[in-house]
Amino acid sequence: MLAKPAFEDFKSGVFRRGVVSAIFILFFFTANFAAYAEETVKIKILAVNPSATKNLKTTVVQYLPEEVTPDDILDKEGVQIKYDSEKRTYVLTKEVELAPNETQTIEVRVRNVWVIAPETIEEVKTQLKQSSEALKRTKFAATGKLLYEKASDALAQIEENQTKSLGIMQRMNLYRINMKQLEDLKQNTLSLEAMRKLEEEKKTGVRQVKFVVSAENPSSEDKKLQVRSELPPDIKESDVIDKGEFDLIFDEKKSTYILQRQDTLGPNEVRKYDITIRDVWYIPQPELDFLKAEVEKLVLLFVKSPYEEFSAKQKAIILKAIQAIEALQAEVTLSNSIDDRIRAHVLNDQREKSAKRKIKELQDLLSEVSLKPNEPDSPRVIENLIRKIVDMKNKMIVAMGLNANKPFIWWIFLGIILFLAFITIVFYGTWLKKLQEPKGGSSLKKTEKKPEPGSQS
Predict the structure, then answer these.
(1) Are 44 and 5 in contact (CB under 8 A)?
(2) Is 38:74 a contact under the CB 8 Å cutoff?
(3) Is the CA virtual torsion 279, 197, 453, 359 positive or negative?
(4) Going along 266-345, which residue ranges are E strands?
(5) pLDDT digits (tens, 9 = 90+) for 164-217
(6) CA–CA separation, 377 and 381 (whole Å)
(7) pTM higher than 0.70, yes or no?
(8) Which residue, 272, 205, 260, is CA-closest to 230?
(9) 112, 41 Cβ separation under 8 angstroms
(10) At 119, which helix (H) or strand (E)?
(11) How far apart are CA 324 and CA 351, in angstroms?
């Protein structure tokens, strides 16, 4: 018989080549929690031989939490450490021999790895502050400041969570949630997409949707149940607006959040719980408007170039994809089903990525277009013009009735050359400046794709 450990979050502890009655895995902290203190955790594995007459020789197998590596095991107590490549976790194994009715406890000390280093949090703080300050003289200054303040509150909450005295299971779950949130703050807080989304939310409010959790008591008497439901993979902690009395747990393996609570249901009772979450499956209209404006500006730069027809066709494809997104979003907005929204978003997300990819292709293609279509490069024009002027010097001198061999003639000619060179440089300087301005009046440099504020290289 294979017995399971008390905590299934750590996989199943297994005894092989023998029969046992139970395995209990217990975790204790050796010290009270203080902020960022380095504590250890004791893993206790209790092995019991249920037979009153026979000895038991077996192998204890226990999977470790995925954050634990061999370097984190401080006191191995004679156990061996192996790596399970399929489950991607380390495993403790130990040969034990138990006398009849004997109980044996295997104890292993593990470093407390479920604490985020303060320098890691400080690094994210610094990055967000620098990104926020870089936006001060832009139209996103107010929005960037608001997002930075929200991110600062979230970081302060993470730091506070580190000081709480919690059980090992709660500690590990909170650590995983905090790590997930920290990565999201680092990558997405001050992105251009996040700022446009906040701008729309300030005008229209947060788009919300109800997520329904169901629980049923099939018995004929009152029963205390563990109500548990997995949220959609797209939902982050910040997207849960109202979770009621549920606890939020992060599943590292599935990279999803789970709602969990204890509740007592009456005989044959079915109970539903409404959870309010953000509608993350809606692509904000400002994001779509931005893509439309980008392609309109880009196509103007290909006018009278060999790529004019190609860019026009790409524009038609991009605008058609955006219109399809808008139409499908308007349709699913009338539905209360999250499944409908998710299905629509899968298709719309593909359309949006395709549109962005084609816009990027047009931006890359600009390098193939000269400053003015069908015109030679301006430096070459100037060079050829000056060469022609120099080549004509003798003809010009003769036409003026002067002797080319006299020195003062060369001074006159040099003055003429310098004057013409000055006029030529001024003319072509003005000409180049005009060519750099598309019909919309903006500089060609503005068509280059700007990096999103807050993103990392």
Answers:
(1) no
(2) no
(3) positive
(4) 270-278
(5) 777 777 788 888 888 888 888 887 777 767 777 777 777 778 888 899 999 999
(6) 6
(7) no
(8) 260
(9) yes
(10) helix 118-134
(11) 8
In whole angstroms, what is the distance from residue 342 CA to residue 442 CA? 39
| Residue 73: half-sphere exposure toward Cβ, Cα within 13 Å | 21
Tokens of 304: 């009278």
Report which residue type is found at 131: S
Residues in a beta bridge with 48:
103
Distance of CA 185 to the CA centre of its chain: 9
Token pair for residue 307?
């790529």
Residue 61, helix vs strand vs coil: strand
Distance CA 163, CA 35 (A): 5
Q: Phi then psi for 317, rounded to 5 degrees?
A: -65, -45
**What are the residues facing 226 on neighbouring strands?**
262
Chain-wide mean pLDDT for the chain? 77
311, amino acid identity: S
User: 314: which 2 tokens?
Assistant: 């790409």
Q: Measured at the alpha carbon of residue 124, what is the angle toward residues 123 and 125, in degrees to the nearest 5?
A: 90
| Residue appearing with tokens 């002067």 | 402
pLDDT (tens digit per residue) in 417-453: 777 777 777 766 676 666 565 554 444 444 444 454 4
Cα–Cα distance, 400 to 319 (Å, whole number): 64
* Alpha helices for 5-90 (secondary structure H): none
* pLDDT exceeds 70 at position 92: yes
What distance in Å separates the CA atoms of residue 176 and residue 169, rounded to the nearest whole number?
Answer: 11
Residue 130: which of 112, 148, 146 has the closest Cα?
Answer: 148
- CA distances 118 to 43, 125, 165, Å, are 26, 11, 18
